[in-house]
Amino acid sequence: MRKEVVVITGAAGEMGQALIERLSEDGVNNILALDVNPIPKSLRARCQLALMGNILDEQLFGRLVSEFAIPRIFHLAALLSTRAEFTPEIAHRVNVEGTMNLLKLAVDQSGWLGIPVKFIFPSSVAVYGMPDLATKEREGAVREWEWNVPTTMYGCNKLYGEHLGRYYAEHYRQLAVDQAVHGVDFRSIRFPGLISAFTLPTGGTSDYGPEMLHQAAKGEPYACFVREDTRMPFMAMPDAIKALIQLEDAPKEALTTHVYNITSFNPSAGEMFAEVKRAFPNAQVAFEPDQRRQMIVDSWPVDQDDSRARKDWGWKPDFDQKKAFVDYLIPNISRRYADAAQPS
Ligand code: AKB
């Protein structure tokens, strides 16, 4: 008999780590974690199996098919927006071909299991492309079908990943005589920038938010790479994880689309600094915009309209801006760096 597992790709990343913690707290004890980077030891203990491997490796997929029954996949692995601009072709391979490999795995598994395989895919605010600052300002919170003209490789990859998911869910091999009854139950969330108290992102363009906060908590100065008036949506990590689980749990009949916006607060970089300074009065931030990275954030909307998610599956963030800083970020970050400073 093949062992039943929940597959999480990108397991060593920020979201992967937080998801593993939450699922194992919820009693899920059959996680198969996969990442190209080593998965931290404390998390490995929470997984049935932690594999170091590449989502582009066909042999690895052969092993997954032959050894495991996989009714649920959280496909989190990706190269983020800044990193992807340095190596767009590699980003395309990881973000698009990698996603195809996982979708194919889901289709195959569904055939073996005789049920649809749930496929949860984090997409991003980066799928939007606002042509200029005046339009960005005027449009406010954008809806899922608006301004889908991303300027980054990552944004293009995520948008296409959403389309691939919809294709595999609804139209896969549509001309085949032997139409499979089962398939992929593809569900995706377009996340804003995420802020965790415990980990730092790498390779994103919304990273100025978390970086500013973590540097202040460490007592180190920070050169912020966007202007003070730069505005985009953000979310505290626990809300992001709650959303993944809530969308996965939602009854299929309630869902009216494969892709949902969610959001919670959208401070300007200056307002974010004010929030940081309230907790760490000695925080030093210099605004030294990097024109190229600035252009990327300027192309992202000031906010996302999440009314569809609220209506279809009851989405509502637990943390608004104040609560995110006061109840989650500041106490946990302070503890984290205080613990790190203790002699062992
Ligand atoms: C990035 O900055 O690339 C990501 C994202 C907004 O999806 N954090």
Q: Taking Cα atoms only, what radius of gyration do you get, to the nearest Å? A: 20 Å
**Strand order in the largest sheet:** 3-2-1-4-5-7-11
Q: Determine the fraction of residues in helical runs and give it as a percent range.
A: 40-55%
Taking the alpha carbons of the first and last residues, their distance comes to: 46 Å
CATH architecture name of the domain at 78-197 and 234-265 and 301-320? 3-Layer(aba) Sandwich
Bound ligands, named by name, code or SMILES: 2-amino-3-ketobutyric acid
The profile of the biggest β sheet is: 7 strands, parallel
DSSP strand count: 13
Regarding quaternary structure, how should these chains be classified? single chain
Global mean pLDDT: 96
Low-confidence stretches: none
Helix count? 13
CATH class of the domain at 78-197 and 234-265 and 301-320: Alpha Beta
Structural class computed from helices and strand pairing: alpha/beta
Q: What is the CATH topology descriptor of the domain at 78-197 and 234-265 and 301-320?
A: Rossmann fold
Q: What percent of residues are in strands?
A: 15-25%
Principal-axis shape: globular
CATH superfamily of the domain at 78-197 and 234-265 and 301-320: NAD(P)-binding Rossmann-like Domain
Order of helices and strands: EHEHEHEHHEHEHEEHEEHEHEHEHH
